[in-house]
Amino acid sequence: MKAKRNRNRYGHLKDYWDLYLIMVPGIVYFLVFKYAPMWGIVIAFQDYSPFQGVRGSEWVGWMHFREMFTDREFYQVFRNTLLISLYKLIWGFPGPIILALMLNEVRHLMFKRTVQTLAYLPHFLSWVIIGGILVNLLSPVTGVVNAMLGWFSIEPIFFLADADWFRTVIVASDIWKEVGWGAIIYLAAIVSIDPQLYEAAVIDGAGKWQQIRHITLPSLLGTIIILFILRLGHVLDVGFEQIFVLYNSMVYEVGDVIETYVYRVGISQSEFSFSTAVGLFKSVIGLALVIFFNRMAKRAGHEGVY
């Protein structure tokens, strides 16, 4: 029986060798850049010194984690991270779904392709470029946005230096940058829906809204759940580059997040062990959320991530 299974396994490998070969670069990438660096996690439990290395540094156990939870600044940073991430999740996650549904209803092919291209083009721009655009657009002196507000006799607003507006700018700019790219996945899922379902719905007298509600959205539910679970795994990742480019000392109170905190403490102050402990804490939270919601999805009868 075992020999038969081995023959079937090697036969399957022989028949689909080209597909396995395509997988090799992806597997190598994750092994080299994702799994191998995990060895560095051990310095979270050490008083790490670059001169002594991992093997020569003193083991201190949970000391850095105790420092983290007794640091007042960490709680402020954790709160900022959680709020910005939740805002992005609440307002940003439905965005690609809505855009994909709207594009799917466009019948003019050239217009559809133009809108789709313009929507996902910002994804390929770095946050350095987008940061420069935002600085110019939102400038209280020369910015177009404040010039338009002036038409309605509204005083200029320094969006990037105002604590009341900074998070709004962060969330809105992230949605604008990524909504088109995210919509591609949902458009691909919509294309795979059986057209006969829509034809039967039309015969039964269903309108566009009813087709979306009873056919399109239920067909997308599996994709939505999987992407939602994967997004929860990065719930404490709000984007270092975006925050670092846009924030300043005037908005540290609302804009300083775990990633900038780790950079400031780990790189600027050379607290490598402490910053690794903070990063490990963030990863454990993401892993726990993925496991929990994946189980919830399976209990509800849906396919999870694994």
TrEMBL record:
Keywords: Membrane, Transmembrane, Transmembrane helix, Transport
Pfam families documented for this protein: BPD_transp_1
Membrane-crossing residue ranges in chain numbering: 20-45, 82-103, 124-152, 183-203, 215-236, 272-293
Lipid bilayer topology: Multi-pass membrane protein
Main localization, broad class: membrane
InterPro entries found in the cross-reference section: MetI-like (IPR000515), MetI-like_sf (IPR035906)
Protein location: Cell membrane; Membrane
Ranges of residues in domain ABC transmembrane type-1: 78-293
Family: Belongs to the binding-protein-dependent transport system permease family.
Name of this protein: ABC transporter permease subunit
